[in-house]
Amino acid sequence: MTVALVLLVDQVTKKLVRDGVTPGDEDPIFPALKLVNVRNDGVAFGFDAGGKTVVIVLIALALLALVLYFARHTARPLIWLPTGLLVGGALGNIVDRIRDGAVTDFLKLPAWPAFNVADVAITVGVLLLVMVLERREDSDEVPAGSAGA
Question: 0.85 exceeded by the pTM?
Fold first, then answer.
């Protein structure tokens, strides 16, 4: 469900931007946030521009590793949420790369490259994944005062 929701919101917002914002225009939304229409043929935030096939293969391998990890650890509390955010965000950007040869980015903060809903989902997904993986299982916790006993 999370994957489908992220993919839907990402693709709808990108379509609205491609149809409604002229490339090169900047429309202020909030004082520090602008709506833009730019294409990114690199990885995150424009790094490693070019090499579309290599980028898609690397992303696909990372997704495969994540899905395999998820499949082996489904009992871990909340693992589905960061996995869904990461897979949905990655798929949203892969759809753009396959369809258009580049990702549509449309949110712009000062001194930061433009980004999109998929990028936000990926970033939040990574942060949540770290939190879920670092969280100790109740059965793994050592009772207070019994360290090393």
Answer: no
